[in-house]
Amino acid sequence: MSSEGLKAILFWDIDGTLLTTGRAGIFAWEASADEIAGYHVDLQMLQTAGLTDFAIGRVILEKLKLPSDGELLSRIVRQYEGYLPEMLPRRQGRVLEGVKKLLEHMHNECPELMLYLLTGNTTAGAKAKLNYYGLYDFFKDGAFANQNGNRIDIAKRALSMATDESPVPSDRIFVIGDTPADIQCGQAIGAKTIAIASGDYSLEILESYDPWRVLPGLGDIGRFLSLLEESN
Prior knowledge:
Elements: E1 8-12, E2 19-20, H1 25-37, H2 53-63, H3 70-87, E3 94-95, H4 99-109, E4 113-118, H5 123-132, E5 141-143, H6 151-165, E6 173-177, H7 180-188, E7 192-196, H8 203-207, E8 213-215, H9 221-230
């Protein structure tokens, strides 16, 4: 795809799509929960795929049998954000196969492609992860988790923000993610969802949610770019 191509907006999930932290974030959640509970809280088995950071905070507070909304929810999430940067080196995370080369190619060779984040991470959480793994500067902006929003609310905010900045036809809007929640986000805003089986969900499970296309990963850059051309 070259600069002669049609403009397109690409909304990207982070965890399991662009990178894995090796679940280092769990250490930040544990430190936050410890601070609130006054004793060590083991969260190593906590399932977080597809959840927003605020939804994870609610699950933890419910586990502690504490009020799971309002000031206490804000507190545990803010504490998590504060602990996250120092916890990321505790696990051997990585940028997933093909991601860095794909983002570099689109950044350098495809100015018609506008890259945004659409993530259940908070703004601070997303920035910490992307900065640590060297991906932050590839994205124009994004929509992130807030206390009162679910994933579809985030998707709607992302669509409004991006199309206000750069209007494009609805068939040139894509959501790229690795969970059923990402597929549902794309469907909710009328976008074409490219599901990536690089996280906790298999190709077969992702296909059952009826995404526009499914890929095993982002290692084949040409294949990914050909999907964008296919939609022209």
